Amino acid sequence: MRGVSVHITGIVQGVGFRPFVYNLATKLNLKGWVKNTSAGVDIEVDGEQDMLDAFVKALRDEAPPLSRIDELAASHRPANGFTSFDIHHSESVDGAFQPISPDVAICDDCLRELFDPKDRRYLYPFINCTNCGPRFTIIQDIPYDRPKTTMAPFAMCPDCEREYTDPTNRRFHAQPVACPACGPSVWLETKDERRKKIGEEAIREVRELLSNGNILAIKGLGGFHLACDATNAKAVSELRARKLRVDKPFALMMPDIETVQQHCEVSEDEKELLTSPAHPIVLLKKKPESSIVEEVSPKQDWLGVMLPYTPLHHLLFSKNHSLFSALVMTSGNLSEEPIATDNNEARERLSKLADAFLMHNRDIHIRCDDSVVRAFQSSNVLTFRPANIYPIRRSRGYSPFPVKLPFDVPQILATGSELKNTFCITNKNYAFLSHHIGDMENYETLKSFEQGVEHFEKLFRVKPEAIAHDMHPNYLATRYALERAERENIPTFAVQHHHAHIAACMAEHGLVEPVIGVSFDGTGYGEDGAIWGGEFLVADYKNYQRAAHLEYFPLPGGDAAIKKPARTALALLWSLGLEWDERLASVVEFCAEDQVTLRVQLEKKINTPLTSSMGRLFDAAAALAGVRQKVNYEGQAAIEFEALADSAEVGIYSFGLEQAEVKTRNAVEALVKDVMAGIPIQKISARFHNGMAESVRETIKKINVETGIKSVVLSGGVWQNITLLRRSLSLLENDGFKVYIHREVPTNDGGLSLGQAAIAAARMRG
Asked: What is the pTM for the complete model shown?
């Protein structure tokens, strides 16, 4: 007889790991114990040597599907004389931490029980087990045990207690375990009456209300949704009016894959994403025959679709009572505010938005919006699962799943950007990127940010030794960083926006050598005080060199030009010495007097910051092509411009490259000429995208000649443009470059804090 001591770190709590160990040890006739600690999982076993070897091998090879083993240390020792195998109580280790599982969509076993009339949890909206259900949104501290979750107030009934304490049961130590006799409950409220109906009766009434065109506030895993029938144009328009959301697309929920396929084109990669444990919103091509109304996603041929991920969602779509094939499921908030999570908060904030409320009494400890992804194939996907994921918003189902860094780092807080904010904290070789916070433009979002930071620091035992932030001095996230650093007397690191984008993608791929980074986005504070956004960098974590960039053009009125691309378009023409032809829609947008005012503003350089922004260039091109002269949400003109691109068009608008500047005159002149000639917008859009992809290729080839670097990183919000991404990747890979794109964190500002943290760590190392 011999013994083995095992220590495991990673996602190994709340995922059925201890019962897996118990049953494995029992099968191999091993004696000893297993225990959760705030540092991971500890195991001691005695047995015959061949059984011990099989045990250690199976720990990694046969681990539960939701677990992720980062490190497994096994050391042999003499036998301790154990006579049984036991599961010991969890233990808190001072200063130790571990990754935490994200919330997980309902599993097949629980779904089967949910609709089984013989099961005691039949139609129970909170059915779960160790393979599914809430995790991150209910946990208050580690180790992950029921008293440290929002399930603590619900005392288990004898039946649930029996399952919870049985190591052979799939609900063994499933912390949210509950049933109708002892767990949370749902009820329907109207504006006039609290708890009008409860349980199954409430859900039936909600179906009727939705089918009759009403708007419902529905409490979910990470907050409230606002829901309505997605095939009812009047209901969707009313929701837009109440939510103050003019054109930005709404997310949809559909009951099953078959329904999704009725409305959208669905590839195998997209199906894999839809049905993955995270159940994110997936961007799918809309079919022409779909009954989803245009008001859901105006002037776009893509829909953001997710499948039901909680038992409550499945009950809303119950096949025996289904009255709708798709629901709008958008965040329960007024435009730009944080999602509502608390019942009283929802009553106060959503009363003018919703006709009724479907409430429940399981508290949400941390708000968490739905994640948004799309499927995209490229050659650098082998280490990521699902293999072809391209994140747009990383939140429910993924956060706080860490990015494992290629090096150990100090404890750092990185505060992220102004738009699509996330923050990041680091400990050892883990980077914990937060859930989606949102646009840091109001007090409510700042408070949500501060609550999130406090929670993460508590969970992952972090006391920051330094704080990283964006260079922009007026971002709320920057001001928070500077004020806190002064208060706690710790150093800060100002990180250039586009350098952070490149470092974020490097970090998730474990790259350590310098790369050619192409950082394209809308706005980033440059070291020369200009607004950068079309940048070619030679970068590692510590330093970067601006090897090339889009040539500057003025942005009259700053934010005013962002909201009115026609202003950007005319400023671009003016800077290139091109006429404002009265036949252009961008010119028509301004009366003669306004044109004079704008021209004087440009000539006298009155509030006309210079920009190299690729996002603004796409806005200007869209406006010149006649797509859109004003926008109601960020990037709208460019998004609609891309949606029109003819995939069969091979024509090209040629950009130039002179003295490290990408020149736009020839391309813009050709675009305007095509507009005047009545060339279809579909061809104009394609030619512009083709030309920009070719410009990316030629610029990188020039930098490669100068540096010898063959690794290319693409990051920044403009790379959400799949047409540009696909064409650029094809050209670069054909030229032999190794191209890296984002697979774990968003390419937009939602991934920025990861890069800030990696850069700060490199500077601290010296």
From this structure: 0.94
